[in-house]
Records
---
Amino acid sequence: MANYEIKKLIERSEIEKRIGEVAETIDRDYEGKNPIVAVVLKGGFIFAADLLRNMHIRFTLDFIGASSYIGKESSGDIKITKDLDTPLSGRHLILVEDIVDTGLTLHKLCRLLEQRDPASISIATLLLKEIERDFELPVEYCGFTIPNKFVVGFGLDYSERHRGLPYIGYIDMKGQE
Ligand code: IMP
């Protein structure tokens, strides 16, 4: 494995505070709507656990896993690796993600889930990378906007490492500035 360091980007206390604020906004927006809160696997689970513990409204918890074939010609290819258990028709859906990078996976996932006729789809993401995207994503709830660095911790991994870090750090490749 490459020689690298993890540099702290966002402190745990800052993350906890911000997640509380995001939960409050979601509570306000979805009061009485009983949304389906779908955790996008794998990385979304730690953010989701903290978010849900700060929410007070009624919701239905579900999980979804997807992988996209980036690099293939078609941009419509996505494979659902774990589908929702809950029927979507007429329901409000909140997808809970760890990070929106290119946003391609979520973009494709939203298009696929729209076919199931939900009342609405929104995205709650802990992190949003500050990059240009040439499509719209319904990112209604965002913890932090971050620079375009590779980050780990709080559910995010680097080759399945560092998911359990209680803060967000970025990978600093030594001697490769
Ligand atoms: P996308 O480019 O937005 O489609 O990102 C797809 C997935 O790649 C995310 O859900 C993450 O699991 C992973 N990913 C993207 N950027 C990072 C990062 O900086 N650290 C760790 N995982 C990342």
Note: The mean pLDDT is 93.
---
Amino acid sequence: MSDPVFTIIAPIYNELENLPLLYARVSEVMNQTNEEWELILVDDGSRDGSTDIIRKLAAQDPRVRPVIFARNFGHQIAVTAGMDYSRGQAVVIIDADLQDPPEVILELIKKWREGYQVVYAVRTEREGESWFKLTTASLFYKMIYKITDVKMPLNTGDFRLIDRQALEIINQMRERSRILRGMGAWVGFKQIGVEYKRAARHAGQTHYPLKKMIKLAMNAVTGFSTFPLQMLTTGGVGLVALSLILLVIYLCLAVFSRFDLTYVLAAWLTMIFLAGILLIGMGVLGEYIGRIYEEAKGRPLYIVAEGPDKSLDPTRLDRVKENN
Ligand code: UDP
Ligand code: MG
């Protein structure tokens, strides 16, 4: 079988009731493209029997390619594995619970054919999610947008199409705390959004309780900015400034007033000053740690969209020989 044009990747964690419909809707949509496609189902350590359904689907249809994890590694890692195994020219990441309607894939593909390398789906409306989930999600995205250096488009999740050229770069980024939507924004290239209405979960419950949302937010902030480290330094400088103001007040009181508050003030002043100095020191340490972290991530220094071919042209050596 030749390499497919499209790869659809769905991470699966206990999605027993959603799998058959996911397969049905994805294949119906993808058959309309009249191109070869594959569906990679990454089983992220399901314990509800999803694994058997995945095996069954794969046995029925060779276009379904299962990747079965030994245990639960988390959503972002599951998608990463799917991207590693993908063979398509364009790769679409979709949630297995049908919150991302497979029909939207056709619109993503349309933009890809127009020449966009990253087409992300933007949620205009969300159905069937609690007030709490909506508010926390919205706060989450706004905060991340403000803080991080790479501008991840608002109201987007992982539902997106990525062209092979951009995918190869993302696949090279092997950092462990992974925020794919951030990495997708980081690589650049021609990007565009397509709006869609996020549906309610077809069956089952969210696997993203508040605890995991917070972890995701922490990963996004620490993975794409050094904001928390800068806060240390800013706080330290603020405290030192405050202690200097107190020093002035202290001196004024000591010289001009007989009012004996000076001892209390002196104690405060010293404490605040020391705390400030310590915070600045921690900020400086943090800056170095931040640099180590940047190096450890080992991201590519630059990404070329168009350039001369760097790979060795097999005829080049022959030409060199001929010339000598
Ligand atoms: N998922 C996964 N591993 C996990 C948690 C979730 O592969 O540890 C998958 C899940 O099966 C679904 C997708 O990630 O296909 C999104 O999860 P969910 O729908 O629970 O998140 P939400 O849409 O509520 O943010
Ligand atoms: Mg969901």
Note: The mean pLDDT is 86.
